[in-house]
Amino acid sequence: MAQGELCNRKKVDTLEHLQALLNDTNGKKYYEEMNALDVDTELLWNTIRKTLKEKARIRTWLEICAHCGMCADSCFLYLANNRDPEQVPSYKIQSTLGELVKRKGQVDNAFMQMVMDTAWSKCTCCNRCGTYCPFGIDMGIMFSYVRGLCFQQGFVPWEMKIGSGMHRVFRAQMDVTTEDWVDTCEWMAEEYEEDYPGLVIPIEKVGADIMYTVNAREPKHYPEDLAEAAVLFHIAGEDWTVPKEGWEETSLAMFAGDWEACKLQVESVYDAMRRLKAKRMVVTECGHAYRATVVEGPYWAGLKSGQTPIPSFHYVEWVAEALRTGKLKIDPAKKIKEPVTLQDSCNYIRNAGLADYTREIMSYIAEDFREMSPCREHNFCCGGGGGFNGIGRYRKQRNIGLTVKRDQILATGAKLVIAPCHNCWDAIRDLEEEFEIGIRWSFLKPLLLKMVIIPDHMKPPEE
After folding, report:
1. Taking every annotated instance into account, which residue ranges of this chain make up the domain 4Fe-4S ferredoxin-type (predicted)?
2. What is the arithmetic mean of pLDDT over 219-239?
3. Does the predicted model carry a pTM greater than 0.70?
4. Does 440 have pLDDT greater than 90?
5. Cα dihedral sign for 275, 276, 280, 284?
6. H helix or E strand, kind and range, residue 228
7. What is the pLDDT of residue 59?
8. Which terminus, N or C, of the chain has the lesser number of Cβ atoms within 10 Å?
9. Measuring CA to CA, how many Å separate 6 from each of 24, 28, 34, 155?
10. What torsion, rounded to 10 degrees, do the Cα atoms 9, 153, 75, 67 define?
11. What is the DSSP-derived secondary structure letter of residue 134?
């Protein structure tokens, strides 16, 4: 079986293997090797056959599709691509997974590359199609499975192979070591302590009310996000901590279809929950982190309860609670005056039902809040989910997909888009860079810090 040095069926378990992939600029050698990668058809069919036996819903979904086309308009990529019939969700899954089943895994390299391109550039696994299917068929869930088949065979986008390797080597989506993480926490506390006396970022505190976890991009690229969270917890008087290990909530392994790495990643967070014995966990403003750790994670970890070891919450739930209970108070004069809209994250709105919390927050902070149409669980994917943001091979397709969100935002007349999710934030940033429609975008934390009332005893002494 032909396997390349970089593109192969091997899992990235060593720093050396990971570095070799990183050194391959834009994955040039990786994709060249992919053209010669053999398909292990026996392994492929055995995996599919076992799945169809043990997970009957996938077999049933493939069989009961009525080809009614009701899923078509639910897909933002179908709409963005001039209603191309090949972008209809039912067609996309039948032409990939359906064919793999029909052919009993007897497919070649070209077919597997087509499956890979479809799974990562024609579906973000946002699950909107499942909301509209009269039979409840969820192509998003099935495409997650298809990604797993592709990963097993080595047909996975270069960036996703790297992301999976990061989780295996660092237990984070980026090369942030434990030392890096601790240093960043201490650095941010020192940077902000002058303006907020007594500010600390507690590390490894046992028995706190809140264990806070983040997206690795924050300590790597946006350390001020961590500082802003610390300041808001400080103002709210929360008893909180961050773990020394198990602080990373995200899972590029989930985007890659590397289910073994998903389990490794989420168990590191669950170990921290058990070790620190906090009353609850709060995850930063990240949709897929919440989905990976709170929604999907318990099943990867084999927890029969389907629940995380301690109660777990998205950041919007904590913010809504803090505003509702008066832990955070907003200065009315500093509320957002300009037209503002809100991006509903697929992963914690459609797939976790948290839309009411975000609307509650808007009622406290915005005077001219304008809903997108559609909104809440019916909102369209931002165009960057499922790994779409980060795969260079599909950048053109991703940018086409952004047009649906662009038009939704323009229709509101809003100049500010609040996006409490990293993928959504990135996609809307890229949307503005691509189309220059004159908008700004923001997480909740920096907005809240501009309008929250700081108690006198927490203000620095006047010089």
Report:
1. 112-137
2. 96
3. yes
4. yes
5. negative
6. helix 223-236
7. 86
8. C
9. 9, 10, 9, 11
10. -170
11. T
